Amino acid sequence: MKELQGKTALVTGASRGIGREIALRLGEAGAFVVLNCTSRGVEKAEKVLGELRERGGDGMVKAFSVSDSAAVDQAVDEITKAKGPIQILVNNAGIARDALFLRMKDDEWDDTLNTNLKGAALCARSVVRPMMKAREGVIINVSSVVGQMGNAGQAAYSASKAGLFGLTKSLAKELASRNIRVNAVAPGFIDTEMTADLPAEAKEEMLKGIPLGRMGSGREIAEAVLWLASAKSSYVTGQVLAINGGMYV
């Protein structure tokens, strides 16, 4: 039997990059995967869903803004009515508005924190009540090595990702008595569409700081998320799993 057979999983930001790989891996493991995206990402998300079905999985696309409380609640309600309670939530949706701190505009800061941190909190709050009733659930927050070590020009992104650590640990303590586990993963330098656009010189400089000497893959992050979502990690909660090739230890 597949590890997640019969489970319903919501993966935010699932139309590309790490979110895409997570959605595909959870689907391969038997979960019915709800692929969240923005309204602009529906076409890409539909392609991911098609690929998931080719691999023998199933799911649906649900477009909504994770930073809009009413939209989140409506989406979770619609998913619950269609497939039953969500047992697995992967808070992956994220954006970066990079700028030197003194030049950062208010809306750049707000957009980043609203999507990366507030969005995760809103999605968690919306799924938690039915999880508590069922006395079962897993929440996995996708943070970043930048939230641990910081990075010049990424104050907002670093702050949002660091905030996910505190959210993870606090929710883990609040929800453990109801058999709901909350953990985070902190990816390092991962080979995605976003990093593909970096200049070759920048990539070479980053690789010098990675003891394993290479970028990670989205699949490697997805495997870690699958482990945290499955019963194999049933005694793990409130933890941050760093997946960074030794970039930060």
Order of helices and strands: EHEHEHEHEHHEEHHEHE
Report the end-to-end length measured between terminal Cα atoms. Answer: 36 Å
Q: Any idea what the radius of gyration is?
A: 17 Å
Q: What share of residues are in beta strands?
A: 15-25%
The number of domains is: 1
The outline comes out as globular
Helix content: 40-55%
Outline the biggest β-sheet. Answer: 7 strands, parallel
- Rounded average pLDDT: 96
The level-1 CATH class: Alpha Beta
The total of helices stands at 9
Describe the structure.
By secondary structure, the chain is an alpha/beta fold. It has one domain: Rossmann fold (3-Layer(aba) Sandwich), CATH 3.40.50. Helices cover 48% and strands 17% of the residues. It is built from nine helices and nine strands. It has helices at 17-28, 42-54, 69-83, 106-134, 146-149, 155-175, 193-196, 200-208, 218-229; strands at 8-11, 32-37, 58-63, 88-91, 137-142, 180-187, 190-191, 216-217, 240-243. The strands form two sheets. It has a seven-stranded parallel beta sheet with strand order 3-2-1-4-5-6-9, sandwiched between helices. α1 links the parallel β1 and β2 (32-37). The longest helix is centred in the middle third of the chain and has 29 residues, at 106-134. The N and C termini lie far apart (36 Å).
